[in-house]
Amino acid sequence: MSGEVMLDELKSERIVNKVGGRFKLAALVQKRMGELLQGSRPLIENASDKTMLEIVIQEILQDKIAIEGTPAGQQSQGGDSEKVSKGEST
Predict the structure, then answer these.
(1) Residue 17: how many CA atoms within 13 Å on its side-chain side?
(2) How many CA atoms lie within 13 A of 42 on its CB side?
(3) Which pTM value belongs to this model?
(4) How many Cβ atoms are within 10 Å of 15's Cβ, its own excluded?
(5) Which among 13, 33, 56, 78 is most buried, taking Cβ atoms within 10 Å?
(6) What DSSP designation does 74 have?
């Protein structure tokens, strides 16, 4: 994924709606990148050739992570929790 494609994904309504809005998306990306910096393992395959931001975007798009209290892949209806919840890996 090139840098331009990655930025286009962040601007896409699909990913914004998936997490429930732009602010929640920013919070989720920030929290997950912090976890990765602290040593958490990526939840996607073939992550070694990706930047941390690319990993986080793919984790969101593949429903691997979501804002806690929001089912992965569904828009939030309320609550301000910004904890990252990780989906079941298969």
Answers:
(1) 3
(2) 18
(3) 0.74
(4) 18
(5) 56
(6) S
C-beta separation of 40 from 64 below 8 A? no
Residue-wise DSSP of 6-49: HHHHHH-HHHHHHHTSHHHHHHHHHHHHHHHHTTPPPSSSSGGG
Strand partners, 84: 67
Do the Cβ atoms of 84 and 27 come closer than 8 Å?
no
Residue 85, beta-bridge partner list: 66
Tokens encoding 88: 């079941």
Token readout for 36 is 């990765």
CA angle 61, 11, 76 (to 5 degrees): 55
